[in-house]
Fold this sequence. Notes:
Elements: E1 2-4, H1 14-24, E2 35-41, E3 44-49, E4 55-59, E5 67-73, E6 81-89, E7 101-107, E8 114-119, H2 123-126, E9 133-137, E10 143-148, H3 149-159, E11 172-178, E12 181-186, E13 191-195, E14 201-206, E15 217-222, E16 228-232, H4 235-241, E17 245-250, E18 265-272, E19 275-280, E20 286-290, E21 303-307, E22 315-317, E23 329-331, E24 337-341, E25 349-354
Antiparallel strand pairs: 1-22, 2-25, 3-4, 4-5, 5-6, 7-8, 8-9, 9-10, 11-12, 12-13, 13-14, 15-16, 16-17, 17-18, 19-20, 20-21, 21-22, 23-24, 24-25
Amino acid sequence: xxxxxxxxxxxxxxxxxxxxxxxxxxxxxxxxxxxxxxxxxxxxxxxxxxxxxxxxxxxxxxxxxxxxxxxxxxxxxxxxxxxxxxxxxxxxxxxxxxxxxxxxxxxxxxxxxxxxxxxxxxxxxxxxxxxxxxxxxxxxxxxxxxxxxxxxxxxxxxxxxxxxxxxxxxxxxxxxxxxxxxxxxxxxxxxxxxxxxxxxxxxxxxxxxxxxxxxxxxxxxxxxxxxxxxxxxxxxxxxxxxxxxxxxxxxxxxxxxxxxxxxxxxxxxxxxxxxxxxxxxxxxxxxxxxxxxxxxxxxxxxxxxxxxxxxxxxxxxxxxxxxxxxxxxxxxxxxxxxxxxxxxxxxxxxxxxxxx
Length: 356
């Protein structure tokens, strides 16, 4: 395990990333280190641990496979098995640019457990009403749509254009479901949203452009202090000026609903490589997947970074760059870290486990 502290740096659209991914291949895929739990997956994205330590995985799909959600049992043993909870989910793309079910969060226990999943993009972009949808899925595979966040955010960006991003956009990507609240990070609209019980959507915060391009919030996690922590991709800035992704801290109860850009938020961590997924572990520390930590085009060296809650300037990389386009991340009660590897542009996605 390698520990290093990154200096502060400033942080794009997630959609534009997919085409770039195809150039890189999967050079880092064979580097030994993390234990492979399952492989042969199709664009695995979000991860969430549910009751009984079952690990749920959102798969966006690929050219030959529609999107799905799978449940992995015995994920902390050498004999993990998985079943498909639901398949036939919407996916769109060509030659590796696959977009479908991205974020996932399990809420509740036992028979009351539910999988909350979000589909990327907006129906205005895809022409398919399934995209942008926030869906509740029972472990038996039955489902219903709670709200179309992508549709709402597309209209919101139309009414609230950013001068540097003149076109309306939406790409709901990360989701966090906790008792009484569902939050969505929209990488296209640059917003943090809340979906209310009646299906209405409201924007809690807006993340404007950084030095070169927009911030691209990709994930949201609840910290041990009760605040929300939002990770950003900051892709173009990271290409040009070095690691530029950030983690923002905010209190959703203090959101300015009439002017989300002015909602109070503080910079908690910076100088990070592009964040694609994030969570807090049972140790109270922050974990984020890093899309790449080296040359994105030739040897991406994805990783998981651990940030101690009491020392956000400290960045601990858990695999020494042994991953390739890391995606969703989850932490088990024993501290083992699960991460989706091969999230984009590689034919053999997998879930790996990292022991600390």
